[in-house]
Design goal:
Layout: E1 2-6, H1 9-20, H2 28-38, E2 49-54, E3 60-66, E4 72-77, H3 82-92, E5 98-101, H4 103-117, E6 120-132, E7 143-146, H5 152-165, H6 175-183, E8 187-192, E9 195-202, E10 209-216, H7 226-239, E11 244-249, H8 254-262, E12 265-277
Parallel strand pairs: 4-5, 10-11
Antiparallel strand pairs: 1-2, 2-3, 3-4, 5-12, 6-11, 6-12, 7-8, 8-9, 9-10
């Protein structure tokens, strides 16, 4: 077994494409991070790092990454390889603030990380992955529009508010990251009476899938169906381009899970994030 770590997303994609394409929905976060780095959309001076585990015959046994400005993320990893992945990443990114992945992988990784670096860890959040089945578009007052450059500060403020509310870790968005995504036409606002009331974005498609997120409505404007209809609108826009749609939600919060399932999203599996404590 050997570990390959690179800051070159194109090289990583070349090494691992056959592995990722077997289950692109499972690896939506990895493929998005790779695409953003390759397209110059990570918006950070810190390089992203992409890891792959290889058998002696070069078969890929697992993948992981640390996307620029974010914590560690684990893709599928073969049994017996998680400790080796933790060892390798501890050497190059010992300052990582946390890790996210399938529960069995993230827990094993965090145990190893703690032993290596003398830190603790705590459960930060659980996320549930959904895939879109039959889309059902609800009704709500207002209309959608794509965000424009002048919306960057508003989108940044709402994205940061969402990060804090959901305890998504210390690494947040930057104006540069959001500005690039707005310019690419991937961030949307729902307006009511000429005022933005909800936000939804989607990631760059990868291997036939695009992930919706973030989705956020300020507390004062909740309860009117704005997030539901905007999410449905973005999903419909992607579907018309032949792209499959997925998203994440906090399973402990009944509201988003209820509205996503009401518009046609079906649960697939859950992931956990652990924050490292020093």
């Amino acid at each position: 077994m050997r570990i390959e770590i690179t800051t070159d997303p194109v090289q990583f994609r070349s090494r691992t494409e056959a592995f990722l394409v077997r289950d692109p929905l499972r690896h939506t976060v990895i493929t998005t991070g790779t695409a953003n780095a390759a397209g110059g959309l990570d918006g950070s001076n810190e390089p992203s790092r992409f890891l792959s585990v290889h058998a002696e015959d070069d078969t890929v046994l697992g993948v992981a990454m640390r996307s620029a400005g974010h914590d560690l993320y684990l893709g599928d990893i073969a049994e017996g390889c998680v400790d080796t992945v933790a060892d390798a990443l501890a050497e190059v990114v010992p300052d990582a603030g946390g890790v996210e992945g399938a529960p069995e992988h993230a827990t094993r990784f965090s145990d190893r990380w703690s032993a290596l670096l003398g830190v603790g860890y705590r459960h930060s959040y659980t996320s549930r992955l959904y895939r879109l089945g039959t889309l059902r578009v609800p009704d709500a007052a207002g209309s959608p529009r794509r965000a424009v450059e002048s919306d960057t500060e508003l989108c940044l403020a709402w994205a940061e508010a969402m990060r804090v509310e959901l305890d998504m870790g210390p690494n947040g968005w930057t104006a540069t990251q959001i500005g690039k995504r707005i310019a690419a036409g991937r961030w949307w606002l729902w307006e009511h009476e000429g005022r933005p009331v909800s936000l939804a974005a989607h990631q760059v498609p990868g291997y036939g899938w695009s992930r919706i997120g973030p989705v956020y409505t300020p507390p004062a404007d909740r309860g009117h169906g704005y997030a539901s209809i905007l999410t449905a609108h973005v999903a419909h826009t992607l579907r018309t381009k032949g792209v499959n749609v997925c998203l994440f939600a906090d399973p402990a919060d009944p509201t988003p899970n209820k509205i996503y399932q009401a518009i046609g999203f079906e649960p697939v599996r859950e992931f956990v994030r652990y924050a490292f404590t020093r």
